Amino acid sequence: MSKQPLPKHFTASALVIADGHVLLVHHRRIGAWLPPGGHIDECELPHEAAIREVLEETGVAVEIVSEPMPQTGDSEAFFLNSPLCLHSVMAVEKGQAVDHLDLCYLCRPVYKSPLPEVVASPEVHDAKWVSLDDLEKLPLAKNVKEAVALGLARFGRR
Question: Which of 29, 34, 67, 134 is at 20 to 30 A from 79, Cα to Cα?
Fold first, then answer.
């Protein structure tokens, strides 16, 4: 693998796993299924962006699944929730290839049973819960299968 320069665009995504399903959106420009996510807004923490993007794109409220971090009591030096993984994602924006560094967070629905209703926003072509057994049947974006495998290794198939 060749070395690439560090991406300048930062995004956050949410791998939401519940009841043997994963929450995916069909991205308009990419034309493939992937976890909900998007750019981190100014003054927004990465895990907050992941939670916001899931709600905006699917209508599902989620929470981060992460190891507890120590509280510092200092607003200028504190620990952030740990992402499941960091990965590089190439995208085309306004006709330009742009490399993104995505912080992918493992999440679960706030309302756990039954699976929360999904309402796709106009930002995405579609959104739905996909059975883990049916993932291979969909055109997935790069790294989705690998991210799901990481999430299942950490979270189990619950």
Answer: 34
